[in-house]
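Dear colleagues,

As part of the handover before I leave the project, I'm documenting each prediction I ran so the next person doesn't have to rerun anything. This entry is a single chain, and its sequence is reproduced below.
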Amino acid sequence: MKKYQFKTKYPGFSLIEIAIVLSILGLLLGGILKGKQLYDAAKINALITQIQDISLATHQFEQNFGALPGDYAGASSLKEGLTGGDGNGMIGPQEKDQVWAHLAAAGLMNSAAIPVSKIGGTISFQYISQGDINGNWIVIGQTLGNNNLGALLTPEQAFLIDKKLDDGIATSGKVRAVKGQDAQGECFSVDGSYNLINKNPACVLLVNY
């Protein structure tokens, strides 16, 4: 009986060729991950700059007019029809949305609109009394109803900002964190350290201007 030999039309890859392909894929994946890390770091740095700009504008407003934006009773002197505050030194719920209009009318911000943070969500400036947190704070969080106390930042994002601007502890200093109203997991531990193993949005960041 005549035997037939079948030859494959397309030879398989050698181990060397497979190794080269895997190496190339590894380099591409590494480049993508590195690119994402750089992009995330750039967003954090942009938000830090945004916070610093708002803080500087607020200090300048207070120096110029002797009151905080939003709380300034004489706001109509800046722009006709502009709603003023009660001048009690606390930016209350009815005043927080006027902060940006006061700053814009004073020429200290380009827009009277509520700022969108560089990582999403919104920025407000308001008086908060929660536990040992009492005072006027720049608040970075996700908008929920009439406030922006919804979870926006991951614990790692909050930690990076806190460490850059303050002490890196969620419960102390001029930068604090609170657990967002719709948080996925905990923002920080009982000792104030950020819960870095949680990669989900869990934090609202507070910055004392």
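DSSP finds three helices and five strands in the chain. The radius of gyration is 26 Å.

All the best with the project,
I.
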